Amino acid sequence: MEDFVFSLELDVRDYECDIQGVVNNSVYQNYLEHARHKYLQSINLDFADLTKKGINLMVTRAEIDYKFPLRSGDRFVVGVRTERISALRFGFVQNIYRLSDQKLIVKALVIGVSVNAKGRPELPEELAKAFGYK
User: Fold this and answer.
1) How far apart are CA 133 and CA 127, in angstroms?
2) What is the pTM of this model?
3) Less crowded by CB within 10 Å, the N or C end of the chain?
4) Which residues of the chain have pLDDT under 50?
5) Does 18 participate in catalysis according to the annotation?
């Protein structure tokens, strides 16, 4: 497993599986998003508070490599870390591992941007500091 600054353990629920008995590909995006939100909360960033300040976080790209399927009842962990993509864009590097054997399930890079109240991309100091950017 890679070194991540945050991880979240979850369980596969029956209704997340398709007719083949595996987690539907779209559900992995929900897992990734939930882990990102929990990560942001862990570094004292709250979506509602940011929005009130005119800071809106948006996903601009999601790259997901599906390596192996999860099945109902599997327990797994989502790892999260951020990396700076450009002056305005940031990336969430995220992997999902099945807990029983540490098998890599998904590798993802979700790229985002912060948009100010005027709808323009901006990386506020609050975010840069929270993400550990200089």
Assistant:
1) 9
2) 0.94
3) C
4) none
5) yes
pLDDT tens digits, one per residue of 72-100: 999 999 999 999 999 999 999 999 999 99
* CB 38 within 8 Å of CB 9: no
Count of Cβ atoms closer than 10 Å to residue 42 Cβ = 12
**Which residue has tokens 């100091």?**
125
DSSP 24-52: -HHHHHHHHHHHHHHHHHHTT--HHHHHH
Domains of the chain, by residue range, sit at 6-131
What is the C-alpha to C-alpha distance for residues 54 and 117, in angstroms, rounded to an integer?
A: 5
Q: How far apart are CA 38 and CA 89, in angstroms?
A: 20
Of these residues, 3, 11, 14, 18, which one is catalytic?
A: 18
CATH number of 6-131: 3.10.129.10
Cβ proximity of 90 and 104 under 8 Å: no
Q: Which two tokens stand for residue 42?
A: 């862990």
